[in-house]
């Protein structure tokens, strides 16, 4: 199944996406949030759909696409999870997952504009596979237990400010990851049965020119390994979002310029949809 949220910021309507039809989920849930995702949501939605209880949402094609999940309690990220990206960053591939955090207000719609932070000269893009948690996970016994705690997968752009991340970080990466809007997510939440999550092509483009082109099969740490590993240190809650790392081809490599106002970034993952963001200059609020 594919789930989305359509409408203005803060008033998104949850929908089931079936081909070119958008079925209103409000008879089943008020939102695609943790309570919904831990409630055997696939069976509930299938039963309501088959009973004719989910009407088509009128004018859905013209509505803004929001993030496919409501604001998560946590956004947990894995760094340097592709060997070639580690190499272009000047680092050896990690032997254990590298962890950093983003704030919930980074999660925005897949096509929302992204503001370049005040003073930034090194804003960068990162296409990533996102994992959405569907059942609480703590101290899982093995990686084989992980998928039972996964609601689905999303396309995500782990937007980064490299000077904040590296040069003035004090050794922690999150400072370059947490500007508002720095995590465009979606367009869909796709359930695990719909995709082969360790064999997905993922790509990025800047102003129509290709940048990243890789496959999740190149991950150093698999989805199952990541969820199991994280569960040894943090209790993952339904609705939480995990970003799994980005492949080579970012501006940090030195091969491409960093983003400037007016640049357009597009990213896509096979089966999970495509995003498009225009990057805009920061302006003081009046």
Summarize the structure.
With 286 residues, the chain is an alpha+beta fold.
Structural notes for this entry:
This protein has 286 residues and is an alpha+beta fold. It contains five helices and 18 strands. The chain has helices at residues 34-37, 41-50, 83-88, 162-167, 223-231, and strands at residues 2-6, 13-18, 21-24, 75-79, 98-102, 107-108, 114-115, 123-124, 127-133, 150-157, 160-161, 183-184, 189-190, 201-206, 209-215, 241-243, 264-269, 273-280. The strands form five sheets. It has a five-stranded mixed sheet with strand order 5-4-16-9-10, with helices on one face. Strand 14 (201-206) and strand 15 (209-215) form a beta hairpin. The mean pLDDT is 96.
What is the strand and helix layout of this fold?
Elements: E1 2-6, E2 13-18, E3 21-24, H1 34-37, H2 41-50, E4 75-79, H3 83-88, E5 98-102, E6 107-108, E7 114-115, E8 123-124, E9 127-133, E10 150-157, E11 160-161, H4 162-167, E12 183-184, E13 189-190, E14 201-206, E15 209-215, H5 223-231, E16 241-243, E17 264-269, E18 273-280
Parallel strand pairs: 4-16, 6-12, 7-18
Antiparallel strand pairs: 1-2, 1-13, 2-3, 4-5, 8-11, 9-10, 9-16, 14-15, 14-17, 17-18
